[in-house]
Amino acid sequence: MKKLFLSLGLIASFAGYAMFLNFQKSRPAIVSSNVPATTGGTQRGGGANRPAVSSPAVTKPAPAKQSSGQSSGMMGMGGGMPMRGMYRDGTYTGSPADAYYGIVQVKAIIRNGKITDVQFLSYPNDRSTSAYISSIATPLLASEAIQSQSANVDIVSGASETSGAFMRSLASALSQAK
Amino acid sequence: MGMPVTVAVSGGTAETFEAVFGYFDYVDRKFSTFKKTSEISKINRGEIFPWQWSPDMREVFALSEETRVLTDGYFNIQTPKGTYDPSGLVKGWAIRNAAKILEEKGFEDFYVDVGGDIQSKGKNAEGEDWSVGIRNPFDPEHIVKRVRARGRGVATSGTYERGEHIYDPLRPDSPLSNEMISLTVIGPDIYEADRFATAAFAMGKKGMAFIQNLPGFEGYAIDRKGMATMTEGFAEYVF
């Protein structure tokens, strides 16, 4: 069967990765890395940058402008709005980005002008947890029979829905005891 | 079907609660896979490109990827069908953001509870640290343990309320077969507690070992027979 992707269009690179432990940290500039043309960074995706269209290029990482002074950052494309069909079908791979726990690269696959898959390519590093988790020996933990009791507490934690709409349940203002 | 949101704020006004509930409405409109017009639904239909995603969407995807790597794939927002459902991460993330809204407004004593995942701060009306009970999986009107949250996040993953809704991402075709039916994790904040509770629950027998070896986290797991195990430092929260 003929491969649907005979030619790769341009690389629309996308490296989105952040290690946010602190929400107050201001977002780093968003940069993009195209082989043919590198667009500048923009804050919060709201800029007018758009990846340039050009002749086919292979998935080799392009030099990317990085915002300085950041040990981690979120990088991605600017908020430009490409026209439908402007990008040829193919696989677009962003340049690797250091994301604290290792190098992460993001690959986007476009078919019929639509993105159909986003894959995160993680590179192994010495902080990989995979060997760690599989080798965890079960420690000897304390155990007990559960003891049912009345809910004489402020709040109850229990398993419930993870998805579905947020429903307003209760809002209360309290006054502090003096 | 849905997640009840309960908010208690010492000194809160109608405007306070509107701000918090309004934020959850915003999160719902963006991340609900049940809403055709949500950003995540558009992404799953292939209608928008990563560079068109909103900053919050990029952040959630990035945090999801980080969590996936940290948990060796036991946490994964990609479903077996290939679509993305980040709700397992969005829940704790949104609660944490809602708590930040309250903090930035200057409130020092409050809690936000979404479906049993809790972020609290400060003290209750009696001037004591907020108390949290772990629901009895076999009798939802009762609890089996009481802890003082002390500002930390408390999240419970389990199967008893809606059946086996947590699947093992590494073996999507086989039902999750573990004896653990409820796992409560206490962590630095609700976002952290929630993502690792979700992942650890999917790990089955290794889940509690994972929490035990994770610095800053404690866990309390209940099995089908009503036996509970707890990590070493869990008892410090119990009262």
Produce a short descriptive summary.
By secondary structure, chain A is mostly beta strands. Helices cover 3% and strands 24% of the residues of chain A.
General form of chain B = globular
Element order of chain B: H for helix, E for strand:
EHHHHEEEEEEHHEE
User: What is the rounded Rg of chain A?
Assistant: 23 Å
Subunit arrangement of the protein = heterodimer
Helix percentage range of chain A: under 10%
Gap from first CA to last CA of chain A: 77 Å
Major β-sheet profile of chain B: 4 strands, antiparallel
Low-confidence stretches of chain A: 9-85, 98-103, 123-128
How much is the radius of gyration of chain B in Å? 18 Å
Report on this structure.
- The complex is a heterodimer of chains A (about 180) and B (about 240).
- Chain A is mainly β.
- Chain A contains 1 helix and 8 strands.
- Chain A has one helix at about 130-135; strands at about 90-95, 95-100, 105-110, 115-120, 140-145, 150, 155, 165-175.
- The longest helix of chain A has 5 residues, at about 130-135.
- In chain B, about 35% of the residues lie in helices and about 25% in strands.
- A 4-stranded antiparallel sheet of chain B has the order 6-7-8-9, covered by helices on one side.
- In chain B, a hairpin with a 2-residue loop joins strand 2 and strand 3.
- Residues about 160-165 of chain B have low confidence and may be disordered.
- Classes of the chains: A mainly beta (about 180), B alpha+beta (about 240).
- Chains A and B meet through strand 3, strand 4, helix 1, strand 5 and strand 6 of A and strand 1, helix 1, helix 3, helix 4 and strand 2 of B.
